[in-house]
Amino acid sequence: MAPTAELDTATSPPPPHFVIVPFPAQGHTIPMVDLARLLAERGARASLVVTPVNAARLRGAADHAARAELPLEIVEVPFPPSAADAGLPPGVENIDLITDYADFRPFFDVMRDLAAPLEAYLRALPAPPSCVISDLSNSWTAGVVSRVGLPRLFFHGPSCFYSLCDLNAAAHGLQQQADDDRYVVPGMPVRVEVTKDTQPGFFNTPGWEDLRDAAMEAMRTADGGVVNTFLDLEDEFIACFEAALAKPVWTLGPFCLYNRDADAMASRGNTPDVAQSVVTTWLDAMDTDSVIYVNFGSLARKVPKYLFEVGHGLEDSGKPFVWVVKESEVATPEVQEWLSALEARVAGRGVVVRGWAPQLAILSHRAVGGFVTHCGWNSILESIAHGVPVVTWPHFTDQFLNERLAVNVLGVGVPVGATASVLLFGDEAAMQVGRADVARAVSKLMDGGEEAGERRRKAKEYGEKAHRAMEKGGSSYESLTQLIRSFTLQEPKNSSSITVECSANRHI
Ligand code: UDP
């Protein structure tokens, strides 16, 4: 599809140029690529700055953009040579490629060395770009962009509900609480009580405080923020977040709704390990809203014992399912045999996808009526955008508060009962959810009773609102128009007019 620039190019200044710097993790890159495509579809120029391994993953998105004649380019910068000195194995340029816990912190440190190539790229451009949009986990971009003298917007992946909790907890120094402390997050329009495990904060681990402080500072010094959400979903939290930051927050989502055809959907993230048509053909034979989809995102891994509990729970629920397990989870013959035996037992009712699944194609299929999710914000939003209620099973970081939003505020979720965070690579010791919990939560979500019906009705209503938000005249569409105009005309959105009351007046 040709770009639909809002401005008359014969009489207007050239379209603005946005340089986008994603953090290399699927849950961060996928929405930023969608954002780049949205900007380009609306006539702005978008350049995504990534390293070679990540550029290769984006080939599908780049080809799709080329076919659609979008002004979108992938800018490749080398992964820092300091990676070798830090002990990172060659080719580990994305968080999902890390196989050793010890490599996580060095990975973040090495990412800072992308500052020089980014600066060189920005300075070498024939005309200065209009704005840099960088992931908040790339807080090192703040220094580069200010040295070059450009405006910068942060992109933050989670909901505004989560980000507001984070900002308010940090402002009161609450994230340094002792293990057994509970606290009520101050300054929220609803009452949110958290524990050490469920509290906000991406970098709360001891030894990572510098990253947390740098991210907060990058948020404070940015010219504004971009968030993948929409007004009708969380208007009061968006307003409070914008007021607390005292700078504009552009809510332009759900970005996933950019992907309107199978071609666009298939070019999100990795190349799917199962052909989209194989899953959709299987779903075509199922009743509307009858199938539960199960996927724990791009990072969270389960040890075999835990994986088996999920499988047994799905089997015991008696509901049709599509369950996605990661390559790394099926690495042993023991797991492979177990999965094959399960598939034989549930033949015709359950499908196991091994590897990367075409999540959007699945969630947008009429047969899918529920999603067991780890509560990554993209997954929750993708589900809501397609009117699909959720079983919530948070694992770490923002996921517990995303669960709170889905279950207690929006009323579209059934919690599986996870209350403590688990390790990224699986955590047998912390196994707190069993097959009975999975079966109970799935049955409750899918049982067709009054409560389930009400949950589904709400999800579908949010889904319709999400689609309206992205259509011409909708809140996200018009916000994007404004964002593009602001940077075309060099008139930033005025944040001084924002006045919002934030006081705890509802209990959740
Ligand atoms: N995803 C996908 N196929 C998979 C697993 C994940 O397409 O098999 C996509 C999913 O649609 C979402 C992203 O990967 O856009 C995961 O982001 P999320 O915030 O849900 O979780 P994270 O992976 O960051 O934990």
Q: Can you describe what's shown?
A:
This protein folds into two domains: about 15-160 and about 210-250 and about 470-490, 3-Layer(aba) Sandwich (Rossmann fold), CATH 3.40.50; about 270-465, Glycogen Phosphorylase B (Rossmann fold), CATH 3.40.50.2000. Helix 6 (about 115-125) runs parallel beside helix 7 (about 140-150), helix 8 (about 160-170) runs parallel beside helix 10 (about 230-245) and helix 13 (about 305-315) runs parallel beside helix 18. The chain has helices spanning about 25-40, 50-55, 60-65, 80-85, 105-110, 115-125, 140-150, 160-170, 210-220, 230-245, 260-265, 275-285, 305-315, 335-345, 360-365, 375-385, 400-410, 435-445, 450-470, 475-490, and strands at about 15-20, 45-50, 70-75, 130-135, 150-155, 180-185, 195, 225, 250, 290-295, 320-325, 350-355, 370-375, 390, 415. It contains 20 helices and 15 strands. The protein has about 500 residues and is an alpha/beta fold. A hairpin with an 8-residue loop joins strand 6 and strand 7. The protein has a seven-stranded parallel sheet with strand order 3-2-1-4-5-8-9, sandwiched between helices. Strands 12-11-10-13-14-15 form a six-stranded parallel sheet, sandwiched between helices. The chain has a two-stranded antiparallel sheet with strand order 6-7. The longest helix is centred in the last third of the chain and has 21 residues, at about 450-470. It binds uridine-5'-diphosphate. The site of uridine-5'-diphosphate has 19 residues, from helix 1, helix 15 and helix 16. Keywords: Glycosyltransferase, Transferase. Pfam families: Glyco_transf_N (PF26168), UDPGT (PF00201).
